[in-house]
Amino acid sequence: MDKTLVSKSKFLSLVLRHQPESIGLMLDPNGWADVQELVRLANAHGNRITFDDIRIIVSLSEKQRFALDPSGLRIRANQGHSVKVDLELSPLQPPEILYHGTATRFLPSIHQSGLLKGARHHVHLSRDADTANAVGRRHGQPVILTILAEDMWRSGQMFYQSDNGVWLTDHVPVSWIKFPA
């Protein structure tokens, strides 16, 4: 994706996950926004974006951060919201192991409290260590934590999987985390 589309993708993340009000956009209870309204409001606020830009961003995004509904007229972020939305996800049994990428500077807090969702709705977990490493690298010197997800699930912890394959849960207690040696 070229730099212009990356910038537009970051703008979409901001308004669809965190600050729809920054351009006067209204999300429905499930996080969907009308694409025409999004384009109109974005352009009115100096953020040049077209319907074609949005279709390209949705189709080319490796991480599949966004989804268009079957009609192609509504868009939402697949996960990562700090605004209240219900993504209508059903509980799902996770694989035996999941991974979480973070930065080494966060390890003391994680050793004390586990993985917390913070301002987001869920803790985000990856199916593979490479993806977790890429996430951790965004925050500094990466470290990959192994999560005993199936054991957590068997103990009653709920897991969900977003449309783009990210595994979600409310909290990962320290006892379910394997730290690197």
Automatic annotation (TrEMBL):
It is an enzyme of class 2 (transferase). Keywords: NAD, Transferase. The keyword RNA-binding does not apply. Its EC number is 2.7.1.-. InterPro entries: Ptrans_KptA/Tpt1 (IPR002745), RNA_2'-PTrans_C (IPR042081), RNA_2'-PTrans_KptA (IPR022928), RNA_2'-PTrans_N (IPR042080). Belongs to the KptA/TPT1 family. PANTHER family: PUTATIVE PHOSPHOTRANSFERASE, TRNA 2'-PHOSPHOTRANSFERASE 1. Removes the 2'-phosphate from RNA via an intermediate in which the phosphate is ADP-ribosylated by NAD followed by a presumed transesterification to release the RNA and generate ADP-ribose 1''-2''-cyclic phosphate (APPR>P). May function as an ADP-ribosylase. This is Probable RNA 2'-phosphotransferase. It comes from Dyella acidiphila. The lineage of its organism: Bacteria, Pseudomonadati, Pseudomonadota, Gammaproteobacteria, Lysobacterales.
